[in-house]
Task: structure prediction
Amino acid sequence: MSKLIAPCLMAATFAAPFAAAQNPRQIMEEVQRRQRSESQHYEGTLEVIGHGSRIATKRWVFDRIGAFGNSKGMLRFTVPAEVKGVGLLIVNHPDRASDQWLWRPNIGREQRIALQDRSTRFFGTDFSFEDLEERDVAQFDYKLLGDEKDTWKLQSTPRKSSQYTYGYLWVKKDHYTIVKVESYNKKGLVRVIDYRDFELAKGIWTARTIEVADVTRNSRTILKYDKLEYNLPMKDGDFTLDALRRGP
Amino acid sequence: MTGFLLLALLAQNFEQRGFIENQTLFYPQAAPNDSAHAVDQAAIRWEASYKLAPWLKLSGSLDARADTHRQVNREPQLNLDDRTAQRPALSLRELNATIHKGKVTAEFGRQIIRWGKTDILTPTDRFAPKDYLSSVVDSDFLAVPAARITIAGASDSLDAIWQPRFAPSRTPLLDERWTALPPELNGAAIVDVGARYPGRSQFGLRWNHIAPRYEYSLSYFDGFNNLPLFDASFDPATVTARAQRFYPSMRMFGADAAIPLPWVTVKGEAGYFTSTTPGEQDYVLYVIQVERQVREWSLVGGYAGEAITGGAANPLSFTPDRGFAKSFVGHATLTIDVNRSLTVETAVRSAGSFVRFEYSRAFGEHWRVTPGIAWIRGGMTDFLGQYHRNSYASLAVRYSF
Result:
C-alpha cells in the first residue's frame, strides 16, 4: 500500500472520461500517470494521537526526485528539537521493495532498515517504514470490486515482499485520486489511510491532509502538507548516503 | 525592510539545535579511591550550521559543563585543546567546513567521525575517541581534527581521512572510581604525571559497497590507539605510584558487513590490529550480531570476540574496547509510544557482567526525563568485574531546543 501515500497527493487537473476505466490496472495506471512529477518538496506537520488525545507533534521536510519505481526520497525531521536532523533516505526500485537508511545525528552513522523491519512504526508515528515507500503500480495485482458513490473500490495485492497481504483502495472517478486505503495483513485490518483537503498544485490534485490510523494500537497520525512544490530542480547527488550524513 | 529581507535570507541557511541536561549518578557503594556516593553533572550543548553556498557549509558546536566531582575543569575560558585530562568547562566540540561538489565531499576541521556497522563494540571505529571520565560503560564520542574526503557513487563510496594531530580518549581520573586500582596499591598515593603524545599524523581509508541484498566495507587505519598504556613507577619511601599515559602505534585492517536475511539482519565487523610499540599486543577484535524489529521491540544480540596473535598482555593499560570482548552482548529497546521507551543493554562475560535499564519519557516538545539503573558484577581480574563497586542509578533531565 505504500505507493499510495505519497503519490496519491498528485493527480491531474482534468478528469476527461477514461475509456478503459473499468479495467482496474488501467485505473491505477491512470492514477499514477496523473500523479507523476519529476520532483516533490513539502514540509509536513504530524500530530500523533493516541487513545483520543494528542501526545506529540513532529515536523519533517521531504524531497523526492524521480517518480514511482525510479525515485529517491529524503526525509528529515525538523521538530521536535531532540529528533531534529534525523533523516531517512529511501531508494525506490521498479522491481522490488525500496532500500532505506536511517541517520541519527547522535549516533553519527547510518543504519540500513532491513526488509523484515519495514512494518515497524517510523519514529513513533503511525506510518511504518514501508508506508514511506513509493512503489510502481506494476508491483501490485488489482481487482475491481465495484462502485461506491463517486469512487471505484479496488483490491490490491502486492507481488513483492510486503507487510501487507492485500488492501482496498477507493479511487475518485473525477480526478483519479485515491481517497482511502485499508491495508490488511494475515491477521486482519492494520491501517486505514484517509486523504482529505484536495487542492490543485501545479496541475496535480493533491491531498493536503493524510490521516493514518493504526487499528491495532488505536492510534492515529495526521499529516498536513505545507509549502508543497512539484518539479523543482533537484540533484541526484542530494539523495545518497553521503548526502544523508552531510545533512541539508 | 531590506534588513528584514536580508535576515530572512540568512535565516533560511542557518540551522541550530542543542540541549541543556542535568544528570545525577548515585553510587550505593564507595570505591577504594573514591568515597563519593553521588555525582552531579550539567551540560549545555549548542550546535549550529550555516550554508554559505549550495556547496559550502560551516558547522560548529559548543559545550559548557559543570559538575560536583572535578571531572570538569573549573577555569571559565574557552578550551580548544582536545588533550586535557579533565573536561573543559567551555569547549569547542566541533568546528568544520563541508565542501560538496558532485560526487566529492570534503570536510575540514574538528569533527566526529564514525566508521563501522555493529553496536556496543565497533572494532573499526578508529577515528572516534571517547570520553570515559564519568563512566566506562556509558561513554560519549569526542571530535578529532581531521580532513575527510568522501567520493560517493551510486553503490560504492571511498572515505579517506587524515588526522594531523592525535586526539586521545579521555580516561578516568586516577583518584576516581572508574579507575580500578589493583589491591596492591591500596593506601598508595597515585600521581598522574601526564601523557606522552605521538608526534605524527594518522591516516585511514574505507571503501563501502552497497548491493541490493547486502553491504560491506573494507578499511585501513595507520596511526595510534586512542586508549593509553601506562608507564608506572613506585616509590616505596613515599608510598607513591606515578603513572604516565602513552599511546601505542596501531595499524588496523578492518572489514564490516550487513546482510538482511528473511528473519534477521546479520552484522559482522572485525579488525586485525598490529603495533610496533613494545608492550602492545597484536590481536583480532570481532563482533557478530543479529538484529530484528518485532512490533515495538528493537532487538540486537551477538558475541564480541578477541584473538591474540602476538605479544603478552600488558596489565598497565586502559582498554575498554577489548574489555567488552569475549562477551555476549545485547541491546533491546521497547518503544512504548511516541513519547516513552524502555532500553535494556547487557554484556555478559565468564567472570563479569553488566546490565543497564533505562526508561525514557518525553514531556511536550522539549523535555525528556531518563531514569536508569546499571548493575555491574564480577571479580577484580575481569574488565567489567573490576568495576563491581560502580553499579549506579542515574537520573537525567534534558531540555532540547
About this structure: The CA atoms of residues 63 and 192 of chain A lie 24 Å apart.
